[in-house]
Amino acid sequence: MTKKYQIVGVGNALVDVLAHCDDSFLAEAGIDKGVMQLIDTDRAAELYGKMAAAQEVSGGSGANTIAGIAALGGRTGFMAKVRDDQLGNIFAHDIQAQGTDFATKQAPSDHPNETGRCLILVTPDGERSMNTYLGVSCELSADDLDMDMLADTDWVYLEGYLFDSPANQAAFVSAIEAAKAVGGKVALTLSDPFCVERHRDAFRVLVREYVDLLFCNEHEMQALYQTETLDAAMEIAATEVETVACTASAKGAYILNGGQKIHAPATATKVVDATGAGDLFAAGFLFGLTNGRDLMACGTMGCVAAAEAISHMGARPAMDLKELFGDNKLM
Amino acid sequence: MTKKYQIVGVGNALVDVLAHCDDSFLAEAGIDKGVMQLIDTDRAAELYGKMAAAQEVSGGSGANTIAGIAALGGRTGFMAKVRDDQLGNIFAHDIQAQGTDFATKQAPSDHPNETGRCLILVTPDGERSMNTYLGVSCELSADDLDMDMLADTDWVYLEGYLFDSPANQAAFVSAIEAAKAVGGKVALTLSDPFCVERHRDAFRVLVREYVDLLFCNEHEMQALYQTETLDAAMEIAATEVETVACTASAKGAYILNGGQKIHAPATATKVVDATGAGDLFAAGFLFGLTNGRDLMACGTMGCVAAAEAISHMGARPAMDLKELFGDNKLM
Questions:
Q1: Which CATH architecture describes the domain A5-11+61-112+135-327?
Q2: How many CB pairs under 8 A join A and B?
Q3: Any CB–CB contact under 8 A between A87 and chain B?
Q4: What is the pLDDT of residues A181-211, one digit of tens each?
Q5: What is this structure's pTM?
Q6: For residue range B267-290, what is the model confidence (pLDDT) as tens digits?
Q7: Does A275 contact chain B (CB < 8 Å)?
Q8: Is residue B170 less than 8 Å (CB to CB) from chain A?
Q9: Which of A128, A196, A309, B209 is geometrically suited to a Cys-Cys bond with A276, CB 3.0 to 4.6 A?
């Protein structure tokens, strides 16, 4: 029987606050370039006070992926924690407006932690440096999961970034168990090299025991397996997980499946803001996969969606992805 | 003696919520295309519920103008009312980050009216249809004015949109009196044809008695003087106000000054989102004027800044206006 959802995501609920800066700003503010760093409320206030005028767009890595799949016409649901505040209502509006079911109970408006946000500094080279104040997002626990949703999906998509507190980790395990119990499959994104450093042992177990499809980039993959080359990491991965989709920036993506290695070249574009490249790669790939396309087509779909994401400020698609896929003869 | 500010603005404090839609959405939702309509909280909730995923960018017509002047390096201040909430803090951050002094006391977080916002629907032709929920913005009263700022500026810039409640109107009068008392000049923008319809008599008095520089577009000018042609309206205006800068979309701008009529042609660009065209025209024009440029140069500066505003989503400049003016040999 066809399940109600093709993909249900579990991740962070963040509103991105995007502004331009030059490299000296990053250096002076002590921001590591190109990665995600977690910040507390005080640091968020300090950094925001220094940032240029910004634009706010719903974000969150897993949410971006799910929104991308929904924009392509996929049947999706999402679970993440916001507070009942203005930014929380913006997040909830945007993901539902894209066509995704989102029903995670909001924390009440007097809850001490606000809706999370990510202060994103975009340098002239298009690279993005992310400073995440998680707020209430990291309070997502197993109790917040919508078990009916998880029992009616082909895939559950887990965002590595969320895997930080014991409560989040328990939510991961519950989500995996609920999906597997009805024959669902599990996709995980490693999210970020530092995220992998923090949780390597737990991620190794997750990947080996439960994950059917692993999303990562070359740095995350090498961090996971502590190898000096991508090839060495891929060799280990091949023995542990059914399918791996590893992005490699301008080189495109490498897909590993049952001993086979497929290369999908990157789609040429001007990098305006790299935010969301990996998220939208996963969106294109999963949309292809859940619609019965072969892995080469899935990889190409991922690369085309990623190229769209990096051609403008913000991670969520700015143009009609269905039309873009049509233009590229992908649907 | 050089005054601290070249231009101090008094206007609405709004956060724009921008989304794409097609023309049938406007028709079904009962939205008048291309103009600004005021909406209440219920209508805002209903309309937002129907809108596509959006992006949030600080807006407000007068604030956009002041932010544009600040981006060009002008010395600016701004007065407008926000609540102490997430959107209010975003508005306050953005205008200060651009270099404008902004110190209007925020309404407390438990104040019943939230920070105002403008739901902007952008159709494929680039036209924008604005639905403004003013919230606390319309509560700006004479008590909120910073008299020190008004006593130390060459120009005060008044946003016609703000001229709605008796409290706002009293604030206008106080601001004008404070500026005039120290030899300052007064610029007014008519903002919108419907705004002119609502307040024609009062605007006529303001323009005749106090305004040194009037900004408007052709529709607003004809609404003000109830004439059938722009030329007829300009003839009346010429007898009532020192300088008029009237924009006319793709035809550029007409500037009237002491019997002389100057035409500044529009700068060619692709219209992505017309939001902010008039606001940024005023920014370029005022920047030129307060830096001693002749009226032809002021008009050209206005047209170049307006073209930048309509070439992307959102009203505030997306690129470095100083650089853009440099490229156009304007500074």
A1: 3-Layer(aba) Sandwich (3.40)
A2: 60
A3: yes
A4: 999 999 999 999 989 999 999 999 999 999 9
A5: 0.95
A6: 999 998 989 999 999 999 999 999
A7: no
A8: no
A9: A309
